[in-house]
Amino acid sequence: MGRKSIKENKNIYFRCREEAGLTRAQASELMGYVSESRIDKIENDRTTVQSDDIVAMAAAYKKPELYNYYCTHECRIGQETVAEIQPANLSELSLSIFNTLNTLNSQKQRLLEIAEDGTISEDEMNDFNAIQESLNKISATVESLKLWVNQAIMNGDIKS
Description:
By secondary structure, this protein is mostly helical. Helices cover 66% and strands 0% of the residues. The radius of gyration is 21 Å and the shape is elongated.
């Protein structure tokens, strides 16, 4: 393996490759169609990373969190529609899901009341926003759980 870079402010793609213990040449070989020079340009912010690059990097570096990073930081559509998620362990994720489900269970009747007439009145808006926040939290937690599963599969900890 070549020398480890002493560059400061490495971007996420640079850090993930180094964490995988790969040189650019080794990474390029694993990715097949992404050249060593393209990796260099991506890592040094001299070119725009493409979704196909991310798919190859995530597999080669065993870093499925690159998908979410790309969607929330590089993709215009993803920036508008995808929540940024952070890796967490299984027990934290499980507790978060059950806690949020309990909160939603208590909000269920209120949502039915709000939805009954097909409109959200001004006096219902605060309750509706709280329900929406709970739904967003469970959605983000589910995405984090999917990330945990993908990482476990890539690491060989579980079989798909």
